[in-house]
Amino acid sequence: MRIVLATSSKGMGENGRIATEVKNLGHEFLLLDLKYLNYSILDSELKLEGYEPQPDDIIIIRAVFKYLHAIVALMSYFHSTGIKVFDNHLLEHKYSITK
Rounded to 5 degrees, what angle do the CA atoms 74, 65, 41 make? Predict the structure, then answer.
């Protein structure tokens, strides 16, 4: 399994701790910096630079408030393809992440 942490705050100290814990549990880890995310649409599929989706991926959304509208669309797409998205109800409410 690969845990993908998608955030617009790549430098947050907690990200390193999350990466360490994910690796300690024996999983792969990928940090997606949403500030500099480049994408394209090819053959009706969304392609992200630096991210090739895998069937067992779990995406965790953190610190995306400035990019909220774009991230909701992106995560809705991944959710529709069957990738597990952990967003604390962001896709449901489309305006906030609860703690």
Answer: 20
Architecture label for domain 2-93: 3-Layer(aba) Sandwich (3.40)
Which residue ranges in the chain fall short of pLDDT 70?
63-67, 87-99
Q: E-assigned strands of 1-99?
A: 2-7, 28-33, 39-42, 45-48, 58-62, 84-86
**Two tokens, residue 88:** 């604390």
pLDDT at 91: 53
Tokens (6 digits) for 53: 């989706």
**Distance (Å, rounded) from C-alpha 12 to C-alpha 26?**
22
| pLDDT tens string 8-35 | 777 777 889 999 999 999 999 999 888 7
Is residue 15 within 8 Å of 21, Cβ to Cβ? no
Q: Domain boundaries in the chain?
A: 2-93
Q: What is the DSSP letter of 17?
A: H
Rounded to two decimals, what is the model's pTM? 0.74
